[in-house]
Amino acid sequence: MAKMKFMEAIRETIRQEMAADPFLFLIGEDVGKYGGERGVTGDLWYQFGDDRVRDAPISETAIVGCALGASMTGCRAIVEIPFNNFLGICMDQIFNQAAKIRYMSGGQAQVRLVIRAAMGGYVGAAAHHSDCLASWFVHIPGIKVVVPSMPDDAAGLLRASLRDGNPVIFFEHHGLYSVVGDVPDDPDFVVPLGKARLIREGSDCTVVATALQVHKSLEAASQLAAEGIDIEIVDPRTLDPLDQETILASVAKTRHVVIVHEEWVMNGYGSEIAAIIADKGIRYLDGPIKRVGAKHAPIPFSPPLENYVLPQVDDIVRAVKAAIRNEEPESRPPFEGA
Length: 338
Description:
The chain contains twelve helices and 14 strands. The chain has helices spanning 6-20, 44-48, 60-72, 91-98, 101-104, 134-138, 151-162, 212-225, 244-254, 269-281, 303-309, 313-325; strands at 2-5, 24-28, 53-55, 76-81, 113-119, 144-146, 168-173, 180-183, 197-200, 205-209, 231-235, 238-240, 257-264, 289-294. Helices cover 36% and strands 20% of the residues.
């Protein structure tokens, strides 16, 4: 085991995989000598050079299209998109090409492509750089969607994604890059796609949370424990494939559930998880399914406004109490300015 930041776990996994496979390359904006928008790619350019760590113009469509074509001809490709908001620019390459080529070719063409996309708010980056958009891609068959919350999962899930043989969108929350944790030294350490992680055991309520919201849920757990409420936290880790069995088993145990994500509540992937629980686990529930997410508004630049729009620890606490008590959660106090 080695202590690593979340971003270091990603970088070292890329380094190990590139060292093992000369046909694996990385492409993106400023991923070379500059070391990536957030410094994630670091010194990889110095080790592997221009041919395999390729700086590209600011054209997300061209970047994804280049990587997609190369992946169909025997290479493996990693794309870095510094803000997931800009995935919208290259949607045709993703959902109309990458997601369908293996099916349309009868399996003759593989798309060994991982798109790393940074996401998330709480960093004052304003409306164009702060969204969480995984729900867009969970809706599309043919794409796998990965949302790690811990450094070891970042390493193991990224390696699994690179070895999967299908297009994967790998979402990295800006707020997690400096989180430190133990990461196995094994260059073959893999976390299987489609297997959830039990972050915290509990008996009173299941909280299904992803990415940064896992950490906020842990904070909520400490507050709730002081009031005698013991929550269980399940991190799906991958949204497609989704580990329904682990989620349903936890709900059967606690008989209450809250789903937490940073995306907007309306039509977020939390809605699908709630639907699965209602469809397959309604007999387990002793109270309503509660969801916590962003308010239905663009993410503001102003820190007080941003914090008002995005989910906070107190929102999780209120939702858990409401789920257990079978009532509507207390309203958050109205915004009164800085």
